[in-house]
Write a structure and sequence with these properties.
- The complex is a heterodimer of chains A (about 120) and B (about 110).
- In chain A, the strands form 2 sheets. In chain A, strands 2, 4, 5, 6, 9, 10 and 11 form a 7-stranded mixed sheet that branches. A 4-stranded antiparallel sheet of chain A has the order 1-3-8-7, with no helix packed on it.
- Chain A is built from no helices and 11 strands.
- The radius of gyration of chain A is 13 Å and the shape is globular.
- With about 120 residues, chain A is mainly β.
- By secondary structure, chain B is mostly beta strands.
- In chain B, about 0% of the residues lie in helices and about 50% in strands.
- Classes of the chains: A mainly beta (about 120), B mainly beta (about 110).
- At the A-B interface, strand 10 of A face strand 5 and strand 10 of B.
């Protein structure tokens, strides 16, 4: 049974750095793209980026200047750092597994991140 | 970025009905399209991948079709548990993008 679980603070102050971790169980780290997606309530999901098992990354150009993703294969975890957050970054953040060409076939339950002083 | 436009934005139907949701891409994406179902407070769940392939474990009542710029998701024999928002998502080119969603009510 593949499971993903996000963890991190629920509240971050403006201008600070958001750090989230996704723990993966039931699946190998290889052969997939480990992905972060966020969603503001009532809006469409927004792809943030992904990281492969080799550490290769692709980011959404809209966020690329503020995003860093990393992968710790030995711990079956991957992480997201988003710098200089503003209220516009308030959203539910999901980690997901990208399979094949790409389809997001497994998702974490999501973590609500609020940016507020 | 490739823009994905869904219609209608919302849809009301009755139990047992068949409904169709459309998704239009701003450029040719071949069959690089997935469909997801999202219920309140839950992450999206994949229904269809590669435009017309049914995800393992998903009921045959869901059917996807289309290629190029025009795609459809058909849901047969509507049931109360189908109440959700449905999203299309393209993976032809980065950044991957989603449609704005179609809210289905029964």
């Amino acid at each position: 049974q593949v499971q993903l679980q996000e963890s991190g603070p629920g509240l971050v102050k403006p201008s600070e750095t958001l750090s989230l971790t996704c723990s993966v169980s039931g699946a190998p780290i290889s052969d997939y793209l480990w992905t972060w997606i966020r969603q503001t309530p009532g809006e469409r999901p927004e792809w943030i980026g992904h990281i492969s098992h080799s550490g290769s990354t692709n980011y959404n150009p809209f966020l690329e200047s503020r995003v860093t993703m990393s992968l710790d294969s030995s711990r079956y975890q991957f992480s997201l750092k988003l710098r200089s957050v503003t209220a516009a970054d308030t959203a539910v953040y999901y980690c997901a597994r990208g399979r094949g060409q790409i389809v997001f076939d497994y998702w974490g339950p999501g973590i609500l991140l609020t940016v507020s002083s | 970025d490739i823009q994905m436009t869904q219609s209608p934005p919302s849809l009301s139907a009755s139990v047992g009905d068949r409904v169709t949701i459309t998704c239009q891409a701003s450029q040719d994406i071949s069959d690089s399209l997935n469909w997801y179902q999202q219920k309140p407070g839950k992450p999206p769940k994949v229904l269809i991948y590669d435009a017309s392939s049914l995800e393992i474990g998903v009921t045959l009542k869901f059917r996807g079709s289309g290629s190029g710029t025009h795609f459809t998701l058909t849901i047969n024999s509507l049931q109360p548990e189908d109440v959700a928002t449905y999203y299309c998502q393209q993976y032809d080119s980065l950044p991957y993008t989603f449609g704005q969603g179609t809210r289905l009510e029964i």
